[in-house]
């Protein structure tokens, strides 16, 4: 018990082809729902004579998808931002030109690490796809970095070539002369780097750059640095070439996304969630719309004006959209919006309810996943109402195991450490075999999240192992308490954690960002109504805003240091 597949089987049971991967029948049914057959018919197969030989010769995947899109529907919009708009044909030509320029000017070959650091824009996506096309390793860097953080990731990844936007210019200027002397910088904005974007692309060929027969030509490594809430960030490595059509259908079987949709990318592309949804939608021949920054009103306006079908948001973003004045929300209706997928941070039930009330239960989705382990579960708004607090059932091909501290499997409703097994867990942490081995148990991997499975195979999270508080010898899971406190009408945001205490070993602390004046006694009484007495925080602090990283995770280490006794 305590381990589930799509049909809730345990590891002792034989895995059927249908439970661990999709049957051909289910794939065809999903393809029909997506509009795949209709879309192919509309092309009148005119592009197939060009597409088929390419797919046979180079394979089907991230390396060739844009070339295939260019063959099948060359005039369809592929990518749009505030300043540029490219069709599938134009995007594919740009990807080829970038790839060829990298090979010719910087001798980039399969496996060469190249860093990209800029806000969301067409050039970011083109660069990433070009690097994948020639098998180079894309190192994604936050544009919010300081000079020290940028230097660390450049040195750690081994990247000697950096494509940068204006947003990282200050960090670049802070790098020492010795460090800069060994670094080539191409600026996509004026006044950055030794070579401009125009100079870089001038005179380059738009011919598809085949890398067949070259060393490591079967890989397209993707390096995403973890958020680094504790210690130095670690670079999670995943082979993007190892993503198949069946994997896409496994997710889309339960997600209302169609071919030729319009998807809005406002989550940073350097974050794995932004990448997943960009790849998923571009693989369906959809149009990607990019916003460089998140602003709640501008995002809602973009959803309205661009008639967006789907968007990924972290819960903080969704909360800020829902907090907009009713007049603004009425000004920008979103009738085309079919899917809001939330993730990367806890999505409390009170916020889920508000989102469902505004957008409808079929639109709202949540999932469990991580940079290291990929996308594991999915739940929609209708299921959320039936299973409050759950992050859903596993997607086909995903297996979950819940274990105690001695690695014994636990039964339904027994919280423990979550381990997962699938074909797409990361290759490992870059240059850190020890850290990789710490989270592995054979072919199973954990990111130290705690949770449990109910009798129907729905996963519930209880926080992180490192966040668990032991008070008076009792295990307490802060995520449960945070979820309850979010239901109080005065609480805008809250963080719960433990601090050292002579009497109890650890004492629970709640740090609250309130939307109105509220007394500690009122919150204690509310917590006591919904929680056992030992789960009620013993200390309360009030703050203007809970510190979070760019992907919405609470910076608990910062709070622990601030409020330690």
List the helices and strands and how they pair.
Blueprint: E1 3-4, H1 17-20, H2 24-34, H3 36-42, H4 48-58, H5 65-72, E2 77-80, E3 85-87, H6 88-106, E4 113-117, H7 122-133, E5 137-140, H8 147-157, E6 161-164, H9 169-173, H10 177-181, E7 184-187, E8 195-196, H11 197-201, E9 221-225, E10 235-239, H12 245-252, E11 262-265, H13 272-283, E12 287-290, H14 296-305, E13 310-313, H15 315-322, H16 326-331, E14 339-342, H17 349-359, E15 364-370, E16 374-380, H18 381-386, E17 390-394, E18 399-403, E19 416-421, E20 428-429, H19 433-438, E21 440-441, E22 444-445, E23 449-453, E24 459-464, E25 469-471, E26 474-476, H20 478-485, E27 491-501, E28 505-514, H21 520-530, E29 539-542, H22 556-563
Parallel strand pairs: 2-12, 4-5, 4-6, 5-9, 6-7, 7-8, 11-12, 11-13, 13-14, 14-15, 28-29
Antiparallel strand pairs: 1-18, 2-3, 9-10, 10-20, 15-16, 16-17, 17-24, 18-19, 19-23, 21-22, 23-24, 25-26, 27-28
Helix pairs in contact: 2-12, 4-5, 5-6, 6-7, 14-15, 15-17
Sum this structure up briefly:
This protein has 565 residues and is of the alpha/beta class.
Q: Taking Cα atoms only, what radius of gyration do you get, to the nearest Å?
A: 24 Å
Number of helices: 22
CATH homologous group name of the domain at 39-78 and 107-219: ANL, N-terminal domain
Rounded mean pLDDT score? 86
Assembly type of the shown chains? single chain
Portion in strands = 15-25%
Query: At CATH's second level, what is the architecture of the domain at 39-78 and 107-219?
Result: 3-Layer(aba) Sandwich
Strand order across the biggest sheet?
1-18-19-23-24-17-16-15-14-13-11-12-2-3
Overall strand count = 29
Structural class: alpha/beta
| Biggest sheet descriptor | 14 strands, mixed
CATH-derived topology of the domain at 39-78 and 107-219: Rossmann fold
What form results from the Cα inertia axes?
globular
